[in-house]
Amino acid sequence: MRPPITETGARGYALREVRRWRHGAVEVATDRVAEEVPVALLYNDAPHVVMMATPCDLDDFALGFSLSEAVIGQARELEGVSRHDLLEGIELRLRVPAARAAALDARRRNLTGRSGCGLCGAQVLEDALRQPPPVGDGPRITPAALQRALAELHERQPLNLATGATHAAAWARVDGELVLVREDVGRHNALDKLIGALARAGADLHGGFLVVTSRASYEMVQKAATLGVGLLAAISAPTALAIQLAETTGLTLVGFARREGHVVYSGPQRIVATAAEPVP
């Protein structure tokens, strides 16, 4: 038997030898398989969380997670990130102001993340159900803009096209043009990577909207609202708790965003029939 092909790289997938059955016949082929490794985040040398993630765009992930989890309030508060590749996985050592580190310690978070997780390991209810402030007015978009974003997103997922195993999160302008896309095996990780990339680019998070290739869980809405994003569109369904949080923060939540239509669960005022005419 030949040894397995183990080529990996920044592209986020590995090559593996497989036996593919089709139409009653079998062939030996090389398949692209999404990578998933433990990524530990340490703040000022104190362990905080371990996430199962695709090891691409980890600088974006570190910044985005720090912002969306309210560890820091501004990108400039992340003073440094160093990556350490270990036998067990990857460590990201983050430096934040001492006051932020002390506040984080007071929250007593010790999370263990998985690619399908929600609010993994939060020790108290206050941590799990952290309430972001209201998101503000936010943008207004047309259904055509949403459709444009969805169509572009389908073509902007190279890792998923290669492996069929990853989620994507994208940032679109009001007209639906995609600005940035990030991918990961975990839907939360993909969103955090995107948030980090947007923060690095100095993007105006009140002047566009998010599109994600997953269901809209409570945590996805929580992350978006924490950054003041006014509109989140998900390809799949939301949860009842996600809708409740969207309503209390004023976020527009769209589910089942597909080519044939979409469902608005909260904040319908931001989906307009034309540039000036609100939908009834």
Describe the structure.
The protein is α/β, with parallel strands linked by helices. The chain folds into 2 domains: 37-128, Ubiquitin-like (UB roll), CATH 3.10.20.10; 143-270, Cytidine Deaminase, domain 2 (3-Layer(aba) Sandwich). The protein has 8 helices and 13 strands. The strands form 3 sheets. The chain has a 6-stranded mixed sheet. A hairpin with a 4-residue loop joins strand 8 and strand 9. Helix 1 packs across helix 6 and helix 7 runs parallel beside helix 8. It starts with 12 loop residues before the first strand and ends in a 14-residue tail after the last strand. Mean pLDDT is 89; it is low at 1-9 and 276-280.
Task: Itemize the secondary structure elements and their pairings.
Elements (H helix, E strand, L loop, with lengths): L12 E10 L2 E10 L2 E7 L2 E8 L4 H11 L11 E6 L4 E6 L2 H10 L3 E2 L12 H4 L14 H13 L2 H6 L3 E7 L4 E7 L2 H15 L6 E5 L5 H9 L4 E4 L5 H10 L2 E7 L2 E6 L14
Parallel strand pairs: 3-6, 4-7, 10-11, 11-12
Antiparallel strand pairs: 1-2, 3-4, 5-6, 8-9, 8-10, 12-13
Helix pairs in contact: 1-6, 7-8
Could you give a short description of this structure?
This protein has 280 residues and is α/β, with parallel strands linked by helices. 28% of the residues lie in helices and 30% in strands.
Q: What structural category do the secondary elements indicate?
A: alpha/beta
Could you give the count of β-strands? 13
Quick one: biggest sheet? 6 strands, mixed
Domains, number: 2
Mean pLDDT: 89
The helix/strand series, from N terminus to C terminus, equals EEEEHEEHEHHHEEHEHEHEE
Q: Give helix % range.
A: 25-40%
Alpha-carbon Rg, integer: 20 Å
The fraction of residues in strands falls at: 25-35%
Distance between the termini: 65 Å
Q: Number of helix segments?
A: 8
